[in-house]
Amino acid sequence: MIDNRSNNKTREPNPQNQKEASMGVSRRDFLKLSGGTVLVASLGVNLDPAKAYAKDLRIKNAKVTTTVCPYCSVGCGILVYAENGKVIQVEGDPEHPINEGTLCSKGSSLVQMANNDTRLTKPMYREPGGTAWKEVEWDWALDRIARLVKDARDKSFKTVSKAKVKEKQPDGTEIEVEKEFVVNRTDAIAHIGSAALDNEECYLLQKLVRSWGLVYIEHQARI
Amino acid sequence: MTNHWIDLKNADVILAMGGNPASNHPISMKWIMRAREKGAKLICVDPRFSQTAAKADLYAPLRSGTDIAFLGGMINYILDNELYFKEYVVNYTNASFLVNPEFKGPAELDGLFSGYNEQKRNYDKTTWSFQKDENGIALKDPTLQDPNCVFQLLKKHYARYTPEKVSGITGTPLDKLLEVYKLYASTGTPDRVGTECYAMGWTQHTVGTQNIRAMTIIQQLLGNMGMAGGGINALRGEANVQGSTDYGLLFHILPGYNPTPNASLVDLATYNEKNTPTTKEPQSVNWWSNRPKYVVSYLKAVYGDAATRENDFGYSWLPKLDVGQNASWLMIFDKMLKGEFDGFFAWGQNPACSGANSNKTRQALTKLKWMVNVNLYDNETGSFWRGPGMNPKDIQTEVFMLPCASSVEKEGSISNSGRWAQWRYKAVEPVGQSLPDAEIMNELYFKVKELYKKEGGAYPDPIVNLSWDYGERDAAGKIKHVDIHAVAKEINGYFLQDVYDTKVDPPKLIGKKGDLVTSFPSLQADGSTSSGNWLYCNSYILKDGKEVNMMARRGKDDPTGLGLFSGWTWSWPVNRRVIYNRASVDLNGQPWDPKRPLLKFNATKLSPTGTPGVWEGDVVDGGGGPAGSPTGKLPFIMKPDGIASIFGPGLAEGPFPEHYEALECPLEENSMSKQRVNPTIKIFGDEMDAAFSCDARYPFVCSTYRVSEHWQTGCMTRHCSWLLEMQPQNFVEMSVELAKELGMTNGETVVVASGRGEVKAVVLVSERFKPFKIENSTVHQVGVPWHFGWQFPEDGSGYDSANLLTPNVGDANTMIPESKAFMVNVRKA
Q1: Of A86, A138, B453, B687, most Cβ neighbours within 10 A?
Q2: Quick check: A104 contacting B, CB < 8 Å?
Q3: What sequence ranges are listed for the domain Molybdopterin dinucleotide-binding (chain B) (predicted)?
Q4: What residue ranges define each of the domains in chain B, with the CATH number in brackets?
Q5: From the CA of B521, how many Å to the nearest CA of chain A?
């Protein structure tokens, strides 16, 4: 089975990047600082009232990381509190200059998007004519997809394509001629998606599907 | 967005038209309201009294699909009353350019421009050109009096858009129309700025691109482009749709808006020649003249050492479209229905609900041999074979549903609508066996490559030569896990050799081999640099010997007070926060409005190289001094002429936007001209593409829209119980008058039907819709949100997708489907 655990270790935001703009400590500031960053002592202010307030909150032992909302394109900052490998709370990042700690109904519900009993947790497969999903192993599914990609590509691959183009004649006039051009593509596979991916993934994905020779490449931006 | 979210606070007038920020970008309202607190006015123009309208100082209704008539009337009002910003118009736009005397417009040709070919449904654009002098520079009349100058042609074109005519088309009451015109046109002075916020309410039309162009003409006339608090702001719909567009996940562009190559561009030299604009205008920066540097640097990032000067940097490995081949969304499903595809990837997307004419999409999926769907949740696309009306046993498609990690289970950057690329951190491990998308790509890359290495096959070169070096390898040479930072750095780009500036003597070292490139002016066309996406070059740099991820920065300084927050994350290009910011200053480089000093030329301060004169404020657009100085540069650096285009000959329908009705509309005739619909749209003619205009069976105008509690097809919100509780199911919103006419009451379930499909919906009777008076008749409009689907909630209580109703037709330039104006019936269930 492909291991999904050791990829890109969970990281805290770099404290160097987390310089506090305000020296006043709100409840949120305190909670954020207590969640794993190191600036509490350097603030030189009395945190007792905030500590007392936070003492019994369920996030007191949580690790906090910053994220950006995955819904609309405003790009609101969100603090994600996790404990024992599970997201237990989200709230608007009070330091974020766009949302200044506020969130809409969707952003506030992010905890339900991540922790959800209906999330897919295993690769699923439906055979031709099949009436139900079957759970399958990653390696099996990906081997099978690679085989299908190769077969479709090999069968359909166009190295050249004929096209009518206008060609300038010595006398300056243009006539339409049919010519053969190198195209190196497959028209047998199409790909759509996705605006839900990270930039780095978008880059990898266009690199990958173009290396296979796809030109039918689209996503949400077109609709 | 040319500007960014916080910048909305700097506006004097905000026009929300073609978008509904209060519902769909709720936090953006913080900045609109911040502007209002300082005295700004919010105008909302929408067929429905939306949540944005509820917060607006002025609301005006219009019938869906008539935005060009509305905006054309505003252009006419501005010109008639001489409310334009003359100095800006003369110096920074092509208003003074003289057009080919053979050019004719709709005023003379009954709705058409010169050069129309009825058979091909397109234009020969020969006459849409400028008169030029012997050096190839456009002839100009700075007095704007020449009858062939753009300004006079604009006047002639929009003189037909009188308030009375417009009101008759749009259904906007005349007094409201004039109130909007007056208020928005008040920003035509140097000390007042207006901005526009639009979304799919403008793009999802057969005239979508021209809707936006009409607004750009207004913004040019009023001098609002490039200003803090100005610009044209596309409120994009998804967290990273800006980034996924920037990264070229589209048939027509490679990363960084370089066109995809077609068959006639036989080698790199031909590609560059065809796609690199030239200019004789001495003051033009003509930034796209750098295109060859960006394309070669891209090829070096993609193919690494295998890309050499000898093999054209691997240019032939890129797949080529046929000349004129359109591989866009509607074409994909049209071809899929005809059985032309074996395989299909729907990666992080749910086309069975999101694409227009979903019945066609769903039928098309049954014609596939195989499909791969990557998602967080099961959805209507992955499970299409068990959807309504499907018999699984008859469907031979092999389907894979692959679980991916959510946004808090991996790290990487996303770009918001204001072009800020912001880094996200990983909070927890992916649930179950789900994998970050990058890991799935990594597996597929190696598995396909292995097959080609083992078995050979059709043209393996692009596959085996692809560079893929993102971390530690196992014994077989496979990357164990993708290091996202390595990808981010490849995107930024590296110096592959020591690179020198040879324009100075002795040549000066710009960058050392192996170092990250600092920003895109250092990229080269000779293969000595790489950059996966030139627009993001400067996002991950070397500073004082350390690698710095600019997208993860959290600096809060705001020295101008304009909310640029230049130290917070990173914005493309080169951390510039307002695009075309050079247009915010006069010919001497001083702000048009000193209260909004986005940019300022300080002539006495010495630059780092010791020459006098530096720009202060935002990162200046392009180099050089103010436009009025002998070495100065014009502000619109991406345009070959250096100025903005009021006359825009690049689009399919014509250089000025003209009103045409939607493909499906309630009127038999377009009262502007004989051309009822956009003469350049592609007509899909098959049974599943049916359209019914002015047909008694489908009497009501309909528009799809969104609600705050759901997002897109609902795949990522229907599963959240809090959100589903607030908006549990599909509804059809209608006026009190129409509900009375149809005998329908709040809460009853009815059927909404179009020529393509039907969907159940709960009736929502509201004061937000009012019947329109169009010419002399009453036209009703209804609305349906598009967030629902049969697959979840599993009991079917949410009903199905509103895209079962939408028509199979796209904008003539972009092919974005017309989901915002079509005709339906509403009947008892």
Answers
A1: A138
A2: yes
A3: 701-820
A4: 5-234 (3.40.228.10), 329-464 (3.40.50.740), 687-828 (2.40.40.20)
A5: 21
